[in-house]
Specification:
Structural class: alpha/beta
Number of domains: 1
Number of strands: 19
Number of helices: 17
Largest sheet: 11 strands, mixed
CATH topology: Rossmann fold
Strand order of the largest sheet: 4-5-7-9-8-10-11-14-17-18-19
Low-confidence stretches: 1-50
Radius of gyration: 23 Å
Mean pLDDT: 88
Strand content: 15-25%
Length: 547
Amino acid sequence: MNETHAQKSPWRKWRVPLAALGAGLVAATVATMSAGAAETGGSTGSAGSGSAPVVTTDAGAVRGTAVPGAYTFRGLPYAAAPTGDLRWQPPHPAEHWKDVRDAAAYAPSCPQPMSTTAGAQSEDCLYLNVTTPGPDEHRRDGQHRPVIVWFHGGGLVTGAGRDYDPSKLAAEGSVVVTVNYRLGALGFLAHPALAARDGSSGNYGLMDQQAALRWVQRNIGRFGGNPHEVAIAGESAGGESVLAHLTSPGSRGLFQRAIVQSGTFALNQLPLTKAEDDGRTFANTVDCTDQSADCLRKVPVEKLVAKYPPSYPRAAIVDGKVLKESIGTSLAAGRFARVPVLNGSNHEEEQIILATHVTLHDGAYALLPPGGVTAGNYQQTIASALGVTDARAKAVADEYPLVSYASPAAALGTLLGDADFSFTAAQVDQWISKRAPAYAYEFNDDAAPARYLKTNPPVATHLSELPYLFDLPDAPLQDPFSADQDKLAKSMRAAWIHFAATGNPSTAAVHWPSFHNTADVKSLVPPTPVDEKDFATRHHYAFWSAG
């Protein structure tokens, strides 16, 4: 990219995870049984009579639950519990079962600190959830439906599949899978003692996601989904994960489309040598001074979570197996899966710092200086937050003069959002569009209901688009939609579903241009998306490109 990635911030020792601050066909493939009939082999019933759907997966039968407009199957194991000797190993196959397994409740979330995720946590957490259209929703006679596989955000240290209720996406015509994957030290610790035979270590969370995608290929047809119309999707760290799968050799053939939401902020991954150095330091921190795998696998999970250094970058690792090189390097060189990509960001991604005093750059979180950003420390804060020289920081400050903004913090939020999200999103669009269909958007509803925190004044910031696609049962501070916002939400869901089915987000109501330059960005505004004409100007694209 440029020298904005060159130096470390002295405040990086205070990094913290932002999210912590933050069937017509199914009726043919799903046996709709009453609870008693499922266990006794009795006759089938209908969802309308209060019965529950049963599907036979390759590991055993599961009984789901009927919800408004959809069926949901929760807590389905896609891999064995990564505990004991399986801690810090690639995911192993899940065990089979004989009786019908109840799938009405979510499984535990993966261990994490300071989480906004509700419910229990356990190291035994490799489960996914499947939501399908109900028996009378968007019947497609004899056809399977497109599939959206959702990887949650949370800086690769927090979050869970249960945070996202996709009932509306399912009811409107798709099968949706939400996934738990290992986080923090359990998901991304690299250490020589944990290395596989090929020398790689780390990226266990990404390997979990690949295992979930293999489960989808084997099983999703039984839920009425089309394994040849699979779109992987995610926001923030989930969006970064989608980009990782675009470039990972081990993910090829497991999906046919990719949706990246606010995920282009971490295009430079940590090399394995540096990650393993950090791993040795971490081993000492948890009293494994012998640096052995045996010691590390005996450390209580609570201690691993508590001691995992906040100074570690929240990004995947160039381990030589899952990732052969940094994501940005792969995309720029054309070494990625040639599938259609829908990629976007929000209008003011970093204005969330107005509420959190936390900024995000290149996969790392950093607190702003004590006392906040002021006119006196504005340039210094730019240098530290972006990791650039004083000369470059002065050029950035001149490009974003304080007189143009309501406060120094607002100015910083705008420039960081442009540098780390808007510019990088457009750069990724440029790289991808040279070799595969690409579609770009910017979410621009400044009155969007906040997921975690409200900015003052309200702006479309990081996380703002999520409630337009999902219900967020564990998220506070959500205001109801206006009539126009509800129309935008339905338009976005329709676009996401049509993209999963066809590789093109255009619908009968809204045309999306394919990306050729920044004039092709779709602006998501209520009530109906429109073509955006000034993306490059508003986000200082020429300035960042020249830097």
